[in-house]
Amino acid sequence: MNNSLSPKAIRELREETCNPLGAPQVTTDLSENIIMTSLDDLHNWARLSSLWPLLYGTACCFIEFAALIGSRFDFDRFGLVPRSSPRQADLLIVAGTVTMKMAPALVRLYEQMPEPKYVIAMGACTITGGMFSADSTTAVRGVDKLIPVDLYLPGCPPRPEAIFDAVIKLRKKVGNESILERSKSDQSHRYLTIEHDMNLIFSENTGEYLNKKSVKSIESSNLQQIEENINETNSIEKEIK
After folding, report:
1. Within a 10 A sphere around the Cβ of 172, how many other Cβ atoms?
2. Cα–chain-centroid distance for residue 100?
3. Is residue 69 part of a domain?
4. Host domain of residue 130
5. 39 located within any domain
6. Is residue 219 part of a domain?
7. Residue 237: pLDDT above 50?
8. What pTM was estimated for this model as a whole?
9. The domain that contains 138 carries what CATH number?
10. Dihedral pair phi/psi, residue 91, rounded to 5°
11. Of 93, 139, 157, 228, whose CB neighbour count within 10 A is largest?
């Protein structure tokens, strides 16, 4: 009997016997117009699609990072908008060598960034001190001694494509985070802390420094005498020659 029926007729016969009511129309309409998700997924999707890096660089690695802003690489398509203020940024790409003199400023910028925030250590000098780790006495041997690092990007310097790869890996990490478990990843201690104490000091400037005479200045009479001595020395040298 099945050999005499067409494929269309066999399909209709199976639909009538297996599912006589057909597909539920209400469920089909809901699946086409409503997206079911969780609060974690929605929150993480918003954050990973709008990572705002801080414009921070200390050495040649920042040149590669700055190349991403141009039209050739165009990292705006990842939602990365460079910000000049740490209070508006949530991603810190440490590009370049960090010295002990620059360390307090770096920690202060990191502390001013709002939570949640992420750090990418870019380049060999940032990760281990690089070529300065053997001879320099001021280079920090790894920025992770100052601030927590989420992702390490090796290279000297890394190419802009490598920065893209690091951002993609960071986006995967952000996408797997949970709001309830965020406290587990908080920084528990710091290697370097800064006390922001400001003392009010009133100016005691009376203008006396304008009338003071410099100790190292040459008086006019002495200056004239020096010029006369130089002229006499030059005339004597000419007579000798």
Report:
1. 9
2. 19
3. yes
4. 51-185
5. no
6. no
7. yes
8. 0.59
9. 3.40.50.12280
10. -135, 125
11. 93
